[in-house]
Design brief:
Elements: H1 6-12, E1 15-25, E2 28-35, E3 40-46, H2 52-61, E4 69-76, H3 100-124, E5 129-134
Parallel strand pairs: 1-4, 4-5
Antiparallel strand pairs: 1-2, 2-3
Amino acid sequence: GNYNLMLDLISFEKVQNSYICHIISCGQHHLYWSNRNIKSKNTVKGNYYDGDLVKVFNSLVNIKGAQNKQVYFVYLMGSHWNYEDRYPKEFEVFKIQNSNVDKYLNTVYYNNWVVGKLIGIGKKNGIDLVCYFSDHGEDLKTQHNQENYTREMSR
């Protein structure tokens, strides 16, 4: 068949699939989640961290009556510039130089915690697949400025 999205292929295979994401559009944070099999879509606006989706994910996987395989696609902001806006204060563990490197490392630390929580929830609830996507790569010197592309952005 001709599939436009991975989700189309997976739904063809009779898999219960959902996706959750944290995006920023026009300066506003959006948490968005959808479950194709139960026809639900939800969006909330506000100031959020990626970890706020852990509760959303937990509530999605705890929906009873899933008879098919369950696949979840997770898209997070992760280690995206402005680094200091990507993690709660309690995850500020790197403070050696008070630099962008420290702030970036804090985002990696927090992102690892979030992804670990999501995988743990998936394992605990017998989820067949949790597929994580980051926003994009970064170069600590230029962030992700497309006009100054460097190889580091895609590593």
